[in-house]
């Protein structure tokens, strides 16, 4: 798992380590890693034009010391001081290495920046965001915002130090103006904003520099290929179609027959041995035509997937009966309407998109979009259910408080029917014996991996994603375990 910690957890770990090391050691480790990452990002150092945006705290200190190291290797490094306060020793080190300070005069230009600063930024090969790190509040002050805007206008890439300044580090929310980085270089561990959207998108790729922190249990985790490989229910020699798991699928309607066909594709491409389809005869015919393997009608199953494309055919009483049974149930789309906040739902997985979750919680969709982690957690707690909140980064929250995210999806996956494939696949994983948290995590990861194969940088259809699931699974199961994951 890739782990992300809260600001408090990081501060405690840093304090413990700092007490055992000579002063300044951690900042030097961070700055060294940052300088190397900037060099790699640029592809060259000698003669490169680097502008550092410097705020009042240690985040600015990291940027200044990294600037010193780049200046010693021949980069032309210019610091823009955005506050009266700054890390003085770090600035002295930069100046001693040949770096400069821009815009120290009183005059300001049209953008509200000290004169000369906008020109420096416009000509830079890279801008380094050392405005604020984990000590920052959301938002940018006027001068910082102006500097960031000039970089954007001139398409100068920004490398963020630790976090893109202005995002909310512990929630991944972006309530105010913030940096959008081409690369974020972070230290010790990932922070929540690196994994949860909308902030995760503002980070760009995230490079982690190890500074030797000893960290506690993570606040949230992001599932990696090695985790999926360890969890995937691979059939054994003695397995048969029943012991591999049977999924009952209640999906599709006269209005949306395709949803049943697509969800079945996702289910059959998972680990189970059989799908029992339960629904109107005309839809069952369509499912059988596409998938002759299915069995129509009720019978013994190990889990249910209910809801994709049911529309007005949703039989609330029937779904509530299923929720009272022992078998795990996945509720998708309209099926989610059957959930209430009384009762024990710890074997239930729901797979809403932001709109469906907003409807369940009776809030605006935009509020869920802006505060994805908060609403996923709140739902898991209030309904005692595991929640897979779909989106550019998928957030999965369990009633235990555990949270996992999946960040490997392509934006091409936002297409009709993709959610039906995911519901079928996650249902299949539940029927094969995974608990709701693991089924959701493995399902989200493989769904995204299959979409990446289907897309290869271009458009895709839901059925193509389902068709690529076996390849994605095969590739993953065959991968050697990378060290350290
Ligand atoms: N503590 C440590 O051991 C280490 C810290 N490191 C760096 O230090 C950073 C944390 O440093 P600090 O605790 O000094 O805090 P920051 O540098 O993140 O922020 C400093 C100050 O900025 C001001 N501020 C808050 N929000 C602002 C905003 N929106 N706009 C402008 N100013 C704002 C506040 O006065 C705040 O105290 C980390 O993110 C990391 O970059 C690294 O050097 C690694 C080691
Ligand atoms: K920053």
TrEMBL record:
Free-text comment on the cofactor: Binds 1 potassium ion per subunit.
Sites where the protein binds AMP: 390-394, 419
InterPro entries found in the cross-reference section: Carbohydrate_kinase_pred_CS, CARKD, Nnr, Ribokinase-like, YjeF_N_dom, YjeF_N_dom_sf
Swiss-Prot/TrEMBL keywords: ATP-binding, Isomerase, Lyase, Metal-binding, Multifunctional enzyme, NAD, NADP, Nucleotide-binding, Potassium
Binding partners and assembly: Homotetramer.
CDD domains membership: YXKO-related (cd01171)
Protein name (Swiss-Prot/TrEMBL): Bifunctional NAD(P)H-hydrate repair enzyme
UniProt organism field: Kribbella sancticallisti
EC code(s) of this entry: 4.2.1.136, 5.1.99.6
A Pfam family annotated for this UniProt entry: Carb_kinase
Binding site for (6S)-NADPHX: 58-62, 133-139, 162, 259, 309, 353, 420
Role: Catalyzes the epimerization of the S- and R-forms of NAD(P)HX, a damaged form of NAD(P)H that is a result of enzymatic or heat-dependent hydration. This is a prerequisite for the S-specific NAD(P)H-hydrate dehydratase to allow the repair of both epimers of NAD(P)HX.
């Amino acid at each position: 798992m890739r782990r992300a910690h809260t600001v408090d957890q990081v501060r405690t770990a840093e304090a413990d380590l700092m007490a055992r090391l000579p002063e300044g050691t951690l900042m030097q480790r961070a700055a060294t890693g940052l300088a190397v990452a900037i060099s790699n990002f640029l592809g060259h150092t000698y003669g490169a034009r680097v502008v550092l945006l410097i705020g009042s705290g240690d985040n600015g200190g990291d940027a200044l010391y990294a600037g010193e190291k780049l200046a010693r290797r021949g980069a032309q490094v210019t610091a823009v001081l955005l506050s009266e306060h700054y890390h003085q020793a770090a600035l002295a080190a930069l100046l001693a290495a040949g770096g400069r300070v821009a815009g120290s005069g009183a005059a300001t230009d049209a953008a509200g920046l000290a004169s000369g600063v906008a020109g420096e930024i416009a000509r830079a090969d890279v801008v380094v965001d050392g405005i604020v790190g984990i000590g920052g509040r959301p938002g940018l002050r006027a001068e910082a915002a102006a500097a960031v805007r000039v970089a954007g206008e001139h398409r100068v890439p920004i490398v963020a130090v630790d976090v893109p300044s202005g995002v909310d580090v512990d929630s991944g929310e972006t309530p105010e103006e913030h940096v959008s980085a081409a690369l974020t270089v972070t230290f010790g561990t990932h922070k929540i904003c690196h994994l949860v959207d909308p902030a995760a998108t503002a980070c760009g790729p995230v490079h982690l520099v190890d500074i030797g922190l000893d960290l506690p249990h993570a606040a949230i985790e992001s599932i990696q290929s090695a985790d999926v490989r360890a969890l995937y229910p691979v059939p054994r020699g003695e397995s048969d179609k029943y012991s591999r798991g049977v999924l009952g699928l209640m999906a599709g309607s006269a209005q949306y027959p395709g949803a049943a066909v697509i969800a079945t594709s996702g289910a059959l491409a998972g680990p189970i041995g059989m799908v029992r389809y339960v629904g109107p005869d005309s839809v069952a015919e369509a499912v059988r035509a596409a998938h002759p393997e299915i069995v129509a009608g009720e019978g013994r199953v190990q889990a249910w997937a209910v809801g994709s494309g049911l529309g007005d055919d949703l039989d609330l009483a029937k779904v509530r009966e299923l929720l009272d049974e022992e078998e795990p149930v996945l509720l998708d789309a309209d099926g989610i309407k059957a959930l209430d906040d009384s009762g024990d739902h710890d074997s239930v997985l729901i797979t809403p998109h932001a709109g469906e979750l907003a409807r369940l919680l009776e809030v605006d969709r935009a509020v869920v979009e802006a505060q994805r982690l908060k609403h996923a957690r709140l739902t898991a707690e209030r309904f005692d259910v595991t929640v897979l909140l779909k989106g550019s980064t998928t957030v999965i929250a369990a009633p235990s408080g555990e949270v996992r995210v999946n960040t490997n999806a392509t934006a091409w996956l936002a297409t009709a029917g993709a959610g039906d494939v995911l519901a079928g696949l996650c249902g299949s994983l539940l029927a094969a014996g995974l608990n709701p948290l693991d089924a959701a995590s493995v399902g989200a990861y493989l769904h995204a991996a299959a979409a990446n194969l289907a897309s290869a940088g271009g458009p895709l259809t839901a059925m193509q994603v389902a068709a690529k699931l076996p390849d994605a699974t095969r590739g993953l199961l065959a991968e050697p375990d990378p060290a350290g994951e």
